[in-house]
Amino acid sequence: MLELNKLYLMDCMDGMKQFPDGYFDLAIVDPPYGVGTVTYMPHKRTRVSGGFIDEYNIIMATLSMNQRPKLKVDIDHSMNTKTTIKGFGDENVAPPPEYFAELFRVSKHQIIWGGNYFLLPPSRGFVVWRKPQVAENFSMAMCELAWTSFNTNAKYIEMPSIGKPGERFHPTQKPVKLYEWLLKHYAKPGDKILDTHAGSASSLVACRNAGYTFIGFEIDPDYHAAAHARLLAAEAQMMLPV
């Protein structure tokens, strides 16, 4: 089993396989949403005792939303063949159903950014993150949504997405304080936290600041190197005398 409190350069599917069922108390993840070139879409949903069984096909699309319905193709997206579409580290490719099955296996609770893009169970516990610096007529969304597995009322937080100059190196980088807010409202003392798509490591820095045990995975070498350096800098800062 992998050592805790580290950020690993590896495919999260390989990483999660090393942990038993329910090992992590909370997974806070920000996977690719599939809003660009490739999106996994539901084909058939069948109700069974305690939930649903989903079958998927794929819609191929360009950034032009008008073309999406015209570009349907069949692609093998199983996780164990050479024809698998690379879904991790590419912000335009959403994870396949196998990713969510594994995520739910290794974690007791989940917070999934972009959950409105995925076929997830109904939830009353969505988190709405409002970005006050984004104008209504700007191309960037004014809010982001996170699906949660918690049976609680929906929560709302308003916080700028822009950090200090030169701090941002990942296209979907979120503020450390946003993750600290999530930990404060959804995690318990002693919880083990998982982030399958660590990106800039904001979630891991927040875990370090708040005293939570964590594991992070990032598949892109450049992002991993920058995120690892950021995490080390945060750790060094915590060791400075007050």
Description:
The protein contains 5 helices and 11 strands. It is of the alpha/beta class. Helix 4 runs parallel beside helix 5.
Structure described in brief:
This protein has 242 residues and is an alpha/beta fold. The chain contains 5 helices and 11 strands.
Fold topology:
Elements: E1 6-9, H1 12-16, E2 24-29, E3 38-48, E4 51-60, E5 72-73, H2 97-106, E6 107-113, E7 127-130, E8 143-148, E9 155-158, H3 176-186, E10 192-195, H4 202-210, E11 213-218, H5 221-239
Parallel strand pairs: 1-11, 2-6, 2-10, 7-9, 10-11
Antiparallel strand pairs: 3-4, 4-5, 6-8, 7-8
Helix share, percent: 10-25%
What count of domains describes the coordinates?
1
Identify the strand order in the major beta sheet: 1-11-10-2-6-8-7-9
General form: globular
Q: Number of helical segments?
A: 5
Characterize the largest beta sheet: strand count, sense, and whether it forms a barrel. Answer: 8 strands, mixed
CATH topology (level 3) name: Rossmann fold
Structural class: alpha/beta
Task: Assess the beta-strand content as a share of residues.
Answer: 25-35%
Q: Give the CATH H-level superfamily.
A: Vaccinia Virus protein VP39
CATH class group: Alpha Beta
- Report low-confidence residues grouped into runs of 5 or more: 36-41, 58-91
Terminal residue distance: 36 Å
Number of E-state strands: 11
Radius of gyration: 18 Å
* Overall pLDDT confidence: 80
Q: What is the level-2 CATH architecture name?
A: 3-Layer(aba) Sandwich
Give the H and E element order: EHEEEEHEEEEHEHEH
